[in-house]
Amino acid sequence: MTADPEAPARGTPVGRRVVLGVVGLGVVGVATGRVLSQGVSDVVASTAPGLASVIPAAGGFRIYTVTDGYPEIAPADYRLAVSGLVERPLTLSLADLAELPQTQMTKDFQCVTGWRVDDVPWSGVLLRDVLDAAGVEPDAGALRLTSFDGAYTESLTVEQAMRDDMLVATTMYGAPIEVKHGAPVRLVAAPMYGYKSIKWMDGIELTREVVPGYWEVRGYDIDAWVGQSNGRSDEPVV
Length: 238
Ligand SMILES: Nc1nc2c(c(=O)[nH]1)N[C@H]1C(S)=C(S)[C@@H](COP(=O)(O)O)O[C@H]1N2
Ligand SMILES: [Mo]
Hints:
By secondary structure, the chain is of the alpha+beta class. It has helices at residues 16-32, 94-99, 127-134, 158-161; strands spanning 44-45, 63-64, 80-84, 90-92, 103-110, 116-126, 142-147, 153-157, 166-172, 175-176, 186-189, 201-207. It is built from four helices and twelve strands. The chain has a five-stranded mixed beta sheet with strand order 4-3-12-7-8. Strands 5, 6, 9, 10 and 11 form a five-stranded antiparallel beta sheet that branches. Strand 9 and strand 10 (175-176) form a beta hairpin. The radius of gyration is 18 Å and the shape is globular.
C-alpha cells in the first residue's frame, strides 16, 4: 500500500476512508503509546489530523505533535525568519513582532477530524503585516511555513496569506501561547482546518509555487477551507 492518495491502487478509486486508513496505519502503533492525559479536555495524540477514533471525545483542544514531544525555546532566543522571494529578508524576535501592528480575532478552531472549539480569542500580527514588512516579490506565489519541531511544514498561497483572518499568533485566551499549543508563535489559519495552523512556527519562506506541507503529502487537501475540504464522508476522491 502507498500513502500517496494520488496513486491509483490498480484501478481502484481511492476513497477518503482509504486515504485516512492508510495514513492511520502508519501511526497507530506510535499514537497508542503516546496518548497522554493532559487534564480534563486535552489529549496528546501523535497522529493524523484525521483519525478521530483514537482520540477520546472531549470538549476543548486536542493537542497534536508529529514528533516525540513539544519543542521548547527560551522566548529571548526565538526568531521568525522571513526568507525567499522577498525584498527584505527578516529575522524577527518576539520584541520585533510586538512592534508590528497587533491584531486580535476570535475564531472557531476546527480539526479535520471534526472536533471544534468555538470562539477562541487570539492575538498577534496579521500574516499580511509580516509579509508587507518583508515585501513580497511579484513572482512569489506561495508560502512555505516551517516549525522548529523540525518535522512539520505547511503551505499557503500568497493570496490566502493576505486575508484578514490569517494570524501569526502570540497569545491565546489572553495569555502567551502555551508550549503545547505552539509557543511562542503559531499560525492561526482561521478559515481552514487546524492542520494549516502550524505550531512552533519559525520560518516563512516565499516560494514561486506551493510546496505541499506535512499532511498534504499524506493525502490532505492543500486548500483546507473548513467545510469544503477532505470532509468527513467516504465518497471517492476521484
Ligand atoms: N508543528 C505542528 N503543528 C501542528 C500540528 C502538529 O502536529 N505539529 N498539528 C496540526 C493539527 S492537525 C491541528 S488540528 C492543530 C491542533 O492544535 P493544538 O495542538 O494546539 O490543539 O495543530 C496543527 N499544527
Ligand atoms: Mo487536525
